[in-house]
Design brief:
The structure holds two protein chains of two kinds.
Chain A lengths: L20 H4 L11 E5 L5 E6 L5 E8 L13 H8 L12 H22 L7 H19 L6 H8 L3 E7 L4 E8 L3 H13 L6 H17 L2 H13 L13 H5 L3 H11 L5 E7 L3 H12 L22 E6 L5 E7 L8 H12 L5 H9 L3 E8 L7 E8 L5 H17 L4 H18 L3 H14 L4 H10 L3 H11 L5 E7 L8
Parallel strand pairs in A: 2-6, 7-11
Antiparallel strand pairs in A: 1-2, 3-5, 3-6, 4-5, 8-10, 8-11, 9-10
Helix pairs in contact in A: 2-10, 3-4, 6-11, 12-17, 12-18, 13-14, 14-18
Chain B lengths: L10 H9 L30 E4 L5 E6 L5 E8 L13 H11 L7 H10 L3 E6 L4 E8 L3 H13 L5 H18 L3 H13 L22 H11 L5 E7 L3 H11 L23 E6 L4 E9 L8 H13 L5 H9 L6 E5 L7 E9 L3 H18 L4 H13 L8 H13 L6 H10 L3 H11 L6 E6 L4 H5 L4 E3 L14
Parallel strand pairs in B: 2-6, 7-11, 7-12
Antiparallel strand pairs in B: 1-2, 3-5, 3-6, 4-5, 8-10, 8-11, 9-10
Helix pairs in contact in B: 2-5, 2-7, 9-12, 9-15
Classes of the chains: A alpha+beta, B alpha+beta.
Chain lengths: 503, 488
């Protein structure tokens, strides 16, 4: 399996004006510098601009520092549901006549809330009454449909060459992404500033069904997703990382439109957002354009921080998910937040264990002992302390016990003996080549900037790259000793149910 | 510590801005609708890569670009699984993988891994249906080392037994694990249904549980000798190199590699005797995974462009398609729904794919079928839809050329698939010429709502609903292969 819902790529070093690349790689000054211009509008909106002209296109993103972290029990998955609703139009876009929709939507909400309240009574619920309300709701939804222009925002973008319009939500942040031909940047400013000014959450109740289908696909019917959900729910007892970004099924079915509106109002503030453009534009013109469209948005009360801290884990945790599927194993340890000084060392360890065919897990579990297909290590790049994990899918006939023993032996080796200079340098060279590869893509660069800025600070990118190049064998051993302790370990296994055991 | 709490927030000033006139300092006013924005012109001419034939017959496309200190080479090789007999299923892929995993007669696999990874380079080889692919990514300073290893691996593979065993075991496990993934299961089974008579397109390029265990080292050696040669490769090179230097290097490294005599005759696709079928695979899941469609077109079909536009409106245009807005947006039946005409070397498929909860299986199928039928029979596509689809395709044309490697690979693919050299140059004109009548014609010609194969993978409970649609054939997921000796 691969941890699927927190899919984050290896860190990429970017250069601010203050940290020229040559300072990082004095020995090889052949990497092109990446001057990012940071501008902060008066309303607190952060703007990051990286001008480059190799293709007449621009990757445009607007990210908000809100994710499933900011939720509470009962409404888990709100950040993600809200992300879906942000594609449903505004008072101007997606409607033939907004004013006519307002009373219809009010009636839809009233009926939907009555149904939800009644359903919460459980066995006592009046099913006949629910059906009646439901019929009324359907009729009202049909009535609203005559005013809706379906997917109008997407169509406006598409018609003008917008490509890859989408958004994603994680525990820590939410990012709205698209690529545009470089002459269409004003369109982005218009549509995105409009969307965060007056979004209208149309088709809310059918979208709940869509999100439920998404949950079934990603978690309930997918062994990898199911195991990941269990792993996180076991490794965290207090911190919101314990619930899945998409939310628990019963919470999704209980969403109300007004909850989403409150969530939007609190978190979608310019002072909680970052705009990132990477590509073919003139930086000064870009600043002027973005300022025109976005400076009128009022700053808001800064949203509250997540204050719950995960208490220290005192003792190993183990969990099993039964699934009629081939077995799989995750072992994880509590690790660091993105901007922690030990993070670069853990990233190097991740490389030693799992990047490429000279890595320790590949050579041991795939080449030498031939125990597994997919095997690897993964470090969460998260705003709050994340997990460092190793995982493997065993070949048929190999027990999970054997896999666990072999993975743990490799992790223990890091604590017991220093890594060789060759391995260390191999990983560092690989990280530098990754850096160069990422320069190919405006989208990947923009995503890294948005992600770092939301979780820490975008300038940490270059700092982290610099630190990785200075990691020593002693650092690796010390950090391995510090984090990879049995008492901080969580092991989650996916196995077929006993009666279906054929493995 | 969250950075937001450290940032100064200019609350008072911002409020002032929000209350007063927005932009008193300039003439600028926001247009009431986005249509009011005037966009600057954009002229775009795709870069033209060079094409050179080496002394040994190998064709190379080159596009030097020094913006990033890296070089990419990608070779398309006429050694795909399309050439396999039923008994050879998986041999093309296993052989391609072993070129890389097995090392060469000069350089052991371990040494090769160490050389490449110490330089942060990657070299990979694999096979799909239409072609095998080799790819090299290397920092420009290490180009010589990379090309040396690439040529060595293509010319002198070692095929050591232990690496063959390793890869064989991994592929078998991958095949076994396909049955854990509804999309993989239905992808595999739908192809089996469409490509009648054991056509290679109906088989999995990874191979089969009963063929993979049989291949010997000699089979790999023979496959490589038969299908891999300089006359069967189209190599695309992009990045930071000097054209003459790279060509000289390629001539030198690939010297002595001789052409193979194998002909490229492909087995004809024969339509199944009955396309109109309902097939059900029971598996205890919360969602049904549905595939609905029939055989489609080849890549060189003259109607390919109007057909692209026609399918964009139906289900290919993402958020902008009818399927998305009706099945997802209005009905909330599915998170993902899409229709595709793939365009391989031989006849491809038309397929609609979606996933929905067990209870919605029947209504979602009926609504989707109805949507396709209405589209074809009434020909009710609108001028507005046509214009949106055409504009989208015209305006996102630049994204086909975002990176030098995308450009050069595209040109190599045109030649590989036998498309005219001016395909890209004339693409926009031909797209602009598409009319509503064209859409109606290609919808009628290439969509057959009365003769579609319906495949449903889902909870046994969803079977009953399907019976109302007609005769249902049920197939079971394949049996697990016999247990191997336990390794601990």
């Amino acid at each position: 399996m691969k941890p699927s819902n927190l899919f984050v790529y290896p860190v990429l070093a970017l250069l601010s004006m203050s940290a020229p690349l040559s300072a990082i790689r004095a020995d090889e000054a052949d990497l092109p510098p990446l001057p990012v211009r940071e501008v902060n509008l008066k309303n607190g909106l952060t703007v990051l601009l990286l001008e480059r002209h190799h293709s007449p296109t621009v990757a445009c993103q607007i990210a908000f520092k809100v994710g499933s972290n900011n939720e509470r029990t009962g409404v888990t998955g709100s950040a993600h549901m809200l992300e879906h609703m942000m594609f449903k139009g505004t008072r101007t876009i997606g409607t033939k006549h907004y004013e006519s929709e307002v009373p219809v939507m009010a009636e839809i909400d009233r009926l939907a809330n009555l149904i939800l309240d009644e359903k919460l009574k459980g066995d006592e619920a009046d099913t006949k009454q629910i059906e009646e309300w439901h019929a009324g709701l359907k009729a009202k939804q049909e009535e609203q449909r005559q005013f809706i222009i379906s997917e109008e925002m997407a169509n406006i973008y598409k018609k003008r060459g917008g490509t890859g319009m989408n958004a994603y939500t994680s525990d820590d942040y939410t990012n709205y992404i698209i690529k545009l031909p470089s002459n269409k940047l004003e369109l982005w400013c218009w549509l995105e500033s409009d969307r965060i000014t007056s979004p209208v959450f149309r088709e809310f109740y059918s979208e709940k069904e869509v999100v439920t289908e998404e949950r079934r696909m990603r978690h309930d019917d997918d062994p990898g997703g199911a195991l990941w959900e269990l792993f996180m729910a076991t490794a965290y007892h207090a911190h919101p990382y314990r619930w899945p970004t998409i939310g628990w099924p019963s919470d999704i079915s209980n969403y109300r439109r007004e909850t989403m509106e409150e969530f939007f109002a609190r978190y979608y503030a310019p002072n909680n957002a970052v705009v990132v453009w990477v590509g073919d534009f003139d930086t000064d013109e870009a600043i002027s354009l973005i300022t025109k469209y976005f400076q009128g948005l009022p700053a808001q009360e800064p949203p509250p921080d997540v204050t719950t801290q995960e208490p220290a884990q005192r003792g190993e945790r183990r969990a099993v998910r039964e699934f009629d599927a081939n077995p799989s194993l995750i072992i994880g340890w509590h690790a660091t937040p993105l901007n922690h000084p030990d993070q670069p060392v853990l990233e190097v360890i991740e490389g030693i264990l799992s990047s490429g065919r000279t890595s320790r897990l590949y050579t041991k579990l795939r080449e030498e002992e031939q125990l597994a297909t997919d095997v690897g290590a993964y470090l969460m790049r998260s705003e709050y302390p994340g997990q460092f994990l190793v995982y493997a899918d065993p070949l048929k006939g190999v027990s999970l016990e054997k896999i666990e023993e072999t993975l743990l032996a490799e992790v223990d080796r890091l604590r017991e003996e220093p890594v060789s200079e060759w391995e260390l340098q191999r990983v560092k060279n690989g990280l530098q080549a990754d850096y160069v590869r990422k320069l190919e893509s405006n989208y990947e660069l923009a995503k890294e900037l948005a992600e770092y800025e939301c979780k820490a600070d975008w300038t940490d990118l270059s700092e982290s790259e610099r630190r990785k190049q200075h990691v020593t064998a002693e650092d690796v051993q010390a950090v391995a000793k510090k984090y990879f302790n049995p008492a901080q370990r969580t092991t989650a296994a996916l196995k077929p149910p006993e009666n279906k055991e054929s493995m | 510590m969250r950075r937001s709490s450290l940032k100064p927030i200019f609350l008072t000033i911002a409020l002032h801005y929000a209350c007063g006139p927005l932009f008193a300092q300039s003439e600028w006013t926001r247009s009431a609708r986005p249509e009011g924005i005037k966009f600057p012109d954009q002229e775009f001419h795709p870069p033209q890569p060079g094409r050179v034939e080496l002394g040994n017959g190998m064709v190379v496309y080159l596009l030097p670009d020094d913006s990033i200190p890296q070089v990419r080479l990608r070779g398309m090789v006429r050694a795909g699984s399309l050439h396999e007999t039923p008994d050879e299923s998986g041999l093309a892929g296993l052989t391609a993988n072993l070129l890389r995993l097995g090392g060469t007669t000069q350089v052991s696999a371990t040494e090769m891994n160490r050389k490449l990874e110490y330089a942060g380079a990657s070299l990979e080889a694999g096979a799909a249906r239409d072609s095998a692919i080799v790819s090299l990514r290397v920092l420009s300073k290490d180009l010589e080392m990379g090309v040396e290893l690439l040529a060595d691996m293509l010319k002198n593979p070692a095929f050591p037994e232990d690496k063959i065993e390793q890869r064989r075991g991994e592929l078998l496990e991958t095949l076994r694990r396909q049955d854990d993934d509804p999309m993989e299961i239905t992808r595999r089974e739908f192809r089996k249904l469409l490509y009648y008579g054991d056509h290679p397109y109906g088989r999995d390029p990874l191979g089969a549980l009963d063929t993979l265990p049989k291949f010997s080292r000699e089979d790999l050696v023979h496959w490589h000798k038969t299908w891999w040669g300089p006359n069967r490769i189209l190599l695309a090179a992009s990045g930071d190199f000097i054209k003459e230097d790279l060509l000289a290097l390629l001539e030198e490294e690939f010297e002595g590699w001789t052409s193979t005599a194998a002909a490229s005759e492909y087995p004809q696709v024969v339509p199944p005797p009955k396309m109109d079928r309902i097939v059900f695979i029971p598996k205890e899941l919360e969602q049904s995974t549905v595939r609905l469609g029939h055989l489609g077109i080849t890549r060189d079909n003259p109607d390919a462009i109007p057909l692209e536009v026609m399918n964009f409106i139906l289900g290919g245009g993402g958020f902008s398609s009818r399927m998305f807005s009706q099945i997802r947006g209005q009905s909330g039946y599915a998170y993902m729904i899409v229709s595709v005409f793939d365009k391989p070397l031989l006849q491809g498929q038309f397929v609609t794919i979606f996933q929905t909860k067990t209870d919605n299986t029947l209504p979602a199928i009926e609504q989707t079928r109805g949507l396709i039928r209405e589209y074809v029979e009434q020909g009710n596509m609108t001028q507005e839809e046509l214009e949106l689809a055409k504009a989208a395709k015209l305006n996102d044309f630049v994204f086909k050329f975002e990176t030098p490697s995308a450009v050069v690979n595209r040109f190599a693919e045109l030649e590989y698939y036998g498309l005219p050299k001016d395909y890209l140059e004339t693409y926009r004109d031909r797209l602009s010429a598409v009319t509503l009548d064209d859409l109606r014609r290609v919808a009628r010609e290439y969509l057959h709502p009365d003769s579609m194969t319906l495949l449903v993978l889902g909870h046994p409970d969803s079977r009953e609903a399907l019976d109302s649609l007609g005769e249902v054939e049920e197939i079971q997921l394949r049996e697990p292969i016999p247990s191997e000796p336990t390794k601990d």
